[in-house]
Amino acid sequence: MNKRELADFLRRRREERRPGDVGLPDGAGRRRTPGLRREEVAWLAGVSTNYYERLEQARAPRPSTQVLAALGTALKLSEAEGEHLARLAGQAPPAPEAAEPVPEGVLRLLDRLGPIPAYVVNERLDIVAWNALAASLITDFSKLPREERNSLRLSMRGVCSANGENHFARQAAAELRLAAARHPDDRALVALTREYVEFSREFAESWRDHEVRPRPTLRKRIDHPDFGPLDLDCQTLHVPGQKHRLILLSAEPGTPSHKALEDLTTAAE
């Protein structure tokens, strides 16, 4: 159980919620602090105010699964936020530390996507598999050191960027927050997070705010040396029963980026 992280997460979620969000009167003009009061959360969750205050002060014993469920309901937590809360409280089983192999079915799918560049990332956003068109579009991943095959490090090196870099940073923070709760002893993950906190103010803010809601769609811009800048939709698909995600890149038909992607596909054949 990580008492300090749990306390910080509860406080930030409480301050985000307005009384109207949870069915309470707004009481406009009579509040001195943002969000809900501690006693309101305690009442909604059916626990004592003293106990909830001690949770936010990192002084309470480990909450039961029933209390966590009640807090999740009181604070209107999403499924991802509820899972994160449980892991911070030490109630969720730790994820296996061994690296999961990419399923054979996903590898076959990568090869059959034809004109769609695609790659697979793990929980740490390491790029662990890709198709030939993704390598032609972004970079030859096979020539990179293993530690450099990572979405955040590619962003820091300027290999590819998101249109509105803050959206990518916030999504990355959400995904890595969940991964950090599952793998608290992952030194590589800790080092990557610290590196990107220094690089991106938006990531640092989202990391501090415990944002764990996924953002499955982004816009990316990739400056290709032969075909120029391509503006692409980046869609994230989760692999059932796995922690891997499949990233698909596509362009709107009729746009210069779509034409460039078609030309790149032809050149790669």
From TrEMBL:
Residues 1-35 are annotated as: Disordered. Transmembrane segments: none annotated. CDD domains: HTH_XRE. Residues 1-10 have a biased composition (Basic and acidic residues). Signal peptide: none annotated. Residues 9-82 form the HTH cro/C1-type domain. One of its GO terms (molecular function) is DNA binding. Pfam families: HTH_31, MLTR_LBD. SUPFAM superfamilies: lambda repressor-like DNA-binding domains. InterPro entries: Cro/C1-type_HTH, Lambda_DNA-bd_dom_sf, MLTR_LBD. This is Helix-turn-helix domain-containing protein. It comes from Saccharopolyspora shandongensis. The lineage of its organism: Bacteria, Bacillati, Actinomycetota, Actinomycetes, Pseudonocardiales.
